[in-house]
Amino acid sequence: MPREPEPAPSPRSRCASSDLADFDxxxxxxxxxxxxxxxxxxxxxxxLLVAYAMLERDMSLRASAxxxxxxxxxxxxxx
Length: 79
Known about the structure:
mainly alpha; 0% strand
């Protein structure tokens, strides 16, 4: 008998509540983001994803080139 596929986990279930506790985003913040995109939820998500990608790019550009190219070395035992 074939097994039924498991439902995909919801985005909220992928993030532990302890991970989300570090970020204070209020309902007013969410409403402001949606209002900035004239109530269009897809445009809001697109804007947030673009902002996230820009932050990632900025962080990668700020990392030193030596750090980015250097392979990880095993640690030597202390003593």
